[in-house]
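User: Structure please.
Assistant: Input sequence and predicted structure:
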Amino acid sequence: MNIAAIRRRANYSRIEYILRFSWSIVSIFFRNTPRLAYPLRNWLLRIFGAKIGARVTIYPSCKVFLPWMLTIGDDTSIADGVGLYCLGPLSVGNRVVISQNAYLCGGTHDFESTNFTLVRAPIVIEDDCWICAGAFIGPNVTIGARSVVGAMSAVFKDCQADSVYGGNPAQRIKTRVFND
């Protein structure tokens, strides 16, 4: 058996291949819905198994790879150009803002494997976080509640709650202070 056949067999189940094909067709419609058609996009994601809370706003240019791996809490906003590459479970909490062109990547490859086996890992964004524009969140990362990940930051390790992170790789800059 050749390497390509091994990779295909290991990466997805047969039903996932069927769902991926179906979603690739529906996602064309998803991306071409009117900007304010949030309920329609949420409904389309729910049809494909996503768990979407109340009052969630997802912009049409957001790209969702495997919607059945996606959970989003209430009052969350996902902006233009966001990539949700949810190969593993992707959980986004309540009152989260994910700004333009952020990329949440729940997959990687095992570089210690001769065939670079696909690794499907979870990402957890806890309640009241802000993932700023252009930020990258890598696989197997948890962003603690009420934290901020600065613009263009790259996060490869868990982030503490109530903290501000920035840079590449992201480092803890300070404790988040609330003025209200």
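The chain has one domain: 3-163.
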